[in-house]
Known about the structure:
By secondary structure, the chain is of the alpha+beta class.
Amino acid sequence: MDRKKFLEYIGKPWSKKIIRAKGITYFNDNKDMSYMFEQAGSLKDLNEAGPWLATESPQFIEEVLKANPDIKKEWDPFYKDRMIKIVFIGKNLSQEEICKELDEI
């Protein structure tokens, strides 16, 4: 995801239909850092949430995956644990419309 475009997207007024949004993402200018995005009403916040497990040594990753098999369920061979997951909560939301907007970022 492009950080500048994401900041522009969250900087615009949103539909009153969106009550809450929260999730985790990464940006193409720093793929090693995870970011937590939170929105409630007109308040929107984006903060570093720490480095992805993928940034660790292969031995450490193996130990963590062994101890936490649930992580492996979402492990991607290329992206590893990096992901973009943002949940939108509201009334009469159009999933198609939100996905289209986010795909443009």
